[in-house]
Amino acid sequence: MGSAGGLPEAPATMETSREGESTLLVRLRGAWRLAGELPAASQIDQALARAPASSLRVDAAGVAGWDSGLVVFLYGVLEACRARGVPVTHSGLPGTLERMLALVQESALPPSVPPTRGGWLERLGRRALGWRERGRDMALFVGETTLALGRFVVGRARFRGQDLGLLFEGAGPGALPIVALVNFLVGIILAFVGMTQLRRFGAEYYVADMVGIAVARDMAALITAVVLAGRSGAAYAAQLATMKVTQEVDALRTLGISPVEFLVVPRLVALTLMMPFLTLFADLMGILGGAAVGTTMMNQALAGYLRQTSHSVTSGDVAGGLFKSAVYGALIALTGTARGLEAERSSERVGEAATKAVVTGVVAIIAACGVFQYVFFLFGW
Questions:
Q1: Is residue 267 pLDDT above 60, yes or no?
Q2: Cα–Cα distance between 258 and 266 in angstroms, integer?
Q3: For residues 253-273, b (16+ Cβ closer than 10 Å) or e, as one string?
Q4: How far apart are CA 245 and CA 208, in angstroms?
Q5: What integer pLDDT is reported at residue 7 of this predicted model?
Q6: Could you tell me which of 98, 102, 159, 378 has the fewest CB atoms within 10 Å of its CB?
Q7: Could you give all domains of the chain from N- to C-terminal order, each with its CATH number?
Q8: pLDDT tens, residue by residue, 39-76
């Protein structure tokens, strides 16, 4: 391949020399392209075998042009040095190639060896340090997501609009059947429990009030969130963990695109915005489940049951439930994507990431529900 001025490019050359007493210096010059003859990475391994070094430095300032041929050569050098336990530093590389090498070195790290059991105090210390690291990672993830969400709001985030539309469809219309079934059954259960208890006081008439208030305030949002944690949260974790295994996340970083901006924010926006609509639909299905019991077991007219419900349920009850559902949706999206991005590069970890996403999401939802109950109680709601 010729140069921009029409002159042939200088062939690829490699020179090795000593830098100090313990560093092997490798200077690269010319055009490193697959079409030409390239030095073999095995020459570096042979040089290290003849004269062992404690470190190796690659100087690519003299490279005039490159393609995947240079990438293959540098990967071979990294593998040879990793086998000998020799750390590698490099300078003069283009920015894109610099990021690619950083990802290669990250993926080439040997698997961590599980620590020895040790005494109880040592185990407690390791666990405390692990909690601190996980807390720090989660704080960094939330902070990065917040910044990316700000770029989304002002229209500067980089993502595919087609993906956002599919995420809206999956988190909304795709979840309607299971949300309808579960909340209808919950309404039936609440009505039976209320009828059993209120019958002792001759107050079965207030079953409609109890079911309507419970569904609108808490149960519809809570049950819908738990369903979505097992449906969408697990799916998000599995998708992102699989993308890590196939190195698609690494490819985004190599292209200078933030995975949080491209993958996390669309899922966060889709689930947060769709949860209130799903919860409103769940309110209706829960009330209809209670009405099914009221009209069949208590011989109450459907119109009278619905009228009693409308008198007891206020707009504040509905609005509070919708606000809670939006928070639950954000928690599900954050826990699912965080578990997916933190998964290790192994196909076995995909299912583990999905399981952790469901458990973490459900725990976060229940904890948030408890906080809401306490706060709303303080304000007399």
A1: yes
A2: 12
A3: bbeeebbbbbbbbbbbbbbbe
A4: 51
A5: 60
A6: 378
A7: 13-107 (3.30.750.24), 161-378 (no CATH)
A8: 888 888 888 888 888 899 888 888 888 888 888 888 88
